[in-house]
Amino acid sequence: MTAKIQLTGVAKRFGSRQVLAGVDLVVQPGTSLVIIGGSGTGKSVLLKCLLGLIAIDAGSIRVDGGEVSGLRGAALAAHRTRIGMLFQGGALFDSLSVWRNVSFALDGSAANRRAAAIDNLARVGLASDVADLRPAQLSGGMLKRVALARAIAARPPILFFDEPTTGLDPISAARINGLIRTLVQELKITAITITHDIASARVIADRVAMLHEGTIIWHEPLAALDNSGNDYVRQFVSGSADGPIGVVAA
């Protein structure tokens, strides 16, 4: 089976700081992978490299067997249409109504796009009367749901989630986690989620990988998380101050 996403030796440096130091990772079709790791370990940079927002210094990124690092212009735009993205802050357009945000990447008449937006809002548990609101009128949990509806609107085969529960109360976070898991299963999507929230990982993930000091140091099924045999994973999962993971410099 051809991997949906395959990274080999991916490296990225910013000045003197080596953020990614040879990332090797394989994600099979239909798999929900959660990447854990501390702040500043390069998780968001990795997603941006996959999206083509940041050029890698070395290595290979392949999607559906085709190399995507180095793409430009129309080829890069075509690559990005395969990916839906839920940004950490939602990244909705404040000047647009909810339905116009959700249908932003869709073609067709305004009436058809509005209908598609309402359908996708229903998928994330929001009623049609939300469609004409502005982002400023929404709660944090509703903002995340609208952003999730936008991410799935074009039915991309790949979804990326950047800290999807950041800033949410525990109940709203649990709802978002459940929605992500349900949507990934129903739409048969390949998903990569980056998070420091182990509770989220336990709901969303089929597999878990840990990024530490620029490399993937552990990658196994979710069931192995609590008995990883890896001191770094054990410390991160337990939240212990004692262990091999030191304090990240500000």
Furnish the topology, listing elements before pairings.
Blueprint: E1 5-14, E2 17-27, E3 32-36, H1 43-51, E4 58-63, E5 66-67, H2 73-80, E6 83-86, H3 98-102, H4 110-123, H5 140-152, E7 158-162, H6 170-187, E8 190-194, H7 198-204, E9 207-212, E10 215-221, H8 231-238
Parallel strand pairs: 3-8, 3-9, 6-7, 7-8
Antiparallel strand pairs: 1-2, 1-4, 4-5, 9-10
Give a description of the structure:
This protein starts with a strand and ends in a 12-residue tail after the last helix. The strands form two sheets. A six-stranded mixed β-sheet has the order 6-7-8-3-9-10, sandwiched between helices. A four-stranded antiparallel β-sheet has the order 2-1-4-5, covered by helices on one side. With 250 residues, it is an alpha/beta fold. Helices cover 33% and strands 24% of the residues. α4 packs across α5 and α5 runs parallel beside α6. It has eight helices and ten strands. β4 and β5 form a beta hairpin.
